Amino acid sequence: MPWLTVEQNPSAALLEMERVVGAAWRTTLENQALRSKGGFAQPLVVGTALAAWALLKPLLPRTPTVVAGYSVGELAAFASAGVISVETAMGLATRRADWMDRSVRGDSTSGLMSISGLPVRSVLEQFPRLHCAILIDFDHAIFGALSGDLDQAQTELAGTSAICKRLAIDVASHTPLMAAASEGFSEVLNAVSFYPPEFPIVLNARATLSRRVSELKTALGAQLCMTIDWAACMDAIAERGVHCVLEIGPNSALASLWNRRHPTIPARSIEEFKNPRGAAAWVQSHA
């Protein structure tokens, strides 16, 4: 299997992504039902992030101080750091989605919902069937559960100070409901060759930096069924003494979260710039 790297072939990520999700992926994005399916959404997230990174990396003044990926974005982070190839990242995104779909038992459906404006602890006490999937702040988290339990929480919280927003994701990722998926995906990872990263990676499962291959592989499988403390992940990045943070993704949600938590360290999304050179120049101005 050839080692496809974004540096050697800038179009490798998009070509691999189109092989997995189809060349008409822009049209598929217009279909709400299809774009929320993991088998489409997860390779799309990984592929577009790596395509953007392919254009950006040659323009940067130096290698990143640290990198982190949010949920399935961790696969893109691993590939950008040279731990796995583009081709491997895309294949793992598909296998990850497949295992997550398998973990939905019978006719039960599950999902994720953002709840902000109430302490996370209070939400969990009031709705014990909800699980904290991603911790963003003391009063903001993404919760995962069976769809009926999410519906109940949304109904009961209507009219309160809480802001509830269902996410277009049809599985309760990063919760105990994904235990089988975590176990299955971990077995898949065990058969994949990982290489030492070019720069440290902040792991979702531990909110700590690591360069150890065995630790990277274990954490990547474990994050499927455990809470991601994204607030702690952001803090771990800040502790490296970074001068700025650049989000490589389809929107600026993570950059917004960062700016609220660490306002003295500027963050922007690559989407805010007209081209990669503008993003690279902004990074250079803060080097």
Written overview of the protein:
With about 290 residues, the protein is α/β, with parallel strands linked by helices. The chain folds into two domains: about 10-105 and about 175-285, Malonyl-Coenzyme A Acyl Carrier Protein, domain 2 (3-Layer(aba) Sandwich); about 110-165, Alpha-Beta Plaits (2-Layer Sandwich), CATH 3.30.70. It contains 13 helices and ten strands. The protein has helices at about 10-20, 25-30, 30-35, 40-55, 75-80, 85-100, 120-125, 145-155, 180-190, 215-220, 230-240, 255-260, 275-285; strands spanning about 65-70, 110-115, 130-135, 140-145, 165, 200, 210, 230, 245, 265-270. Helix 1 runs antiparallel to helix 4, helix 4 packs parallel to helix 5 (about 75-80) and helix 5 (about 75-80) runs antiparallel to helix 6 (about 85-100). It is globular. The N and C termini lie far apart (about 35 Å). Mean pLDDT is about 90; it is low at about 1-10.
Task: Domain count, please report it.
Answer: 2
Helical amount among residues, as a percent range?
40-55%
Mean of the pLDDT scores? 92
CATH class of the largest domain: Alpha Beta
**Amino-to-carboxy terminus distance:** 37 Å
Assembly form of the protein: single chain
Structural class: alpha/beta
